[in-house]
Amino acid sequence: MAEAQLDSFPSLFSLDGKIAVVTGGSRGLGLSAASALLQAGCSRVFISSRKAAACAAACAALNAQPNLRPGARAIAVPADCATLEGVRSLFATVSSQTFHVDILLANAGATWGEGFDTHPDDAFAKVMDLNVRGVFNLIREFAPLLQRRATVDDPSRVVITASTAGLGVGTLGKQGTYGYSASKAAVIHLGRNLAVELGPRGITVNSVCPGFFPSKMSNGLLELAGGVEEMGKGNPMRRLGRPEDIAGVVVYLTSRAGAHVNGAAIEIDGGAMWARGQLDVKL
């Protein structure tokens, strides 16, 4: 039957020769995603974060992986994506080394935990600036590079790292992450707007919404909640997120397999949001 014929299924999840930019790529989910992009076939992955030493260390680890295509490499580009100047500096460096970009992973993010009554204005502003305004600036500045080789059959991809905290209720109380939760809700909706805006230009925009993954950002909340094992017991899958969980979804969205997915927000939390029928998440 004609319906059973798939076009080159072995290459469906391949990123052979693609060029990617990953912000916040020196650690945590960003580093896991960057590793997946390289191992799936990307020829170059630009790794950005505020600290030059962290970028360099991440690239050294990524370039030492055994499963890379010949000549593939990660390239360190330190930049502060919370500011327009930082985003433009990143763009200038990347555009000086490549004519186009196929994949943009807007992963850089920040959080702040403090009670409602004492929650500082400058902390709220810092989180919103990086998690929302910075993402918008990043996508706008990189749109020309993303458009250059985009086609209907092979669109360029933007993936925003959001959170299940942007879909339900985040952490409240003494370590309330009010700005973080609000920023993730905002950036998910921003992604949907940009999906419609940029789709005709050959660019898809999707969001991934991780739940709890052990990381430097989440470890403080994990400790307050009793640790990794205790948190895992409350998950329908009886564990927390692992690097391959985020890696698989990012490769799906950026490969030919995800070419017709646009404006989506994909939860990666083992079903924790829906446990006991409650929209109650902790990160």
TrEMBL record:
Keyword list, A-Z: NADP, Oxidoreductase
PROSITE patterns listed in its UniProt record: ADH_SHORT
A GO molecular-function descriptor: oxidoreductase activity
One Pfam family, short name: adh_short_C2
This protein's record includes keyword NADP: yes
Keyword match Ribonucleoprotein: no
InterPro entries in the record: NAD(P)-bd_dom_sf, Sc_DH/Rdtase_CS, SDR_fam, Sec_Metab_Biosynth_SDR
Organism superkingdom: Eukaryota
TM region(s), chain numbering: none
Entry's family note: Belongs to the short-chain dehydrogenases/reductases (SDR) family.
Full protein name: NAD(P)-binding protein
Source organism (scientific name): Trichocladium antarcticum
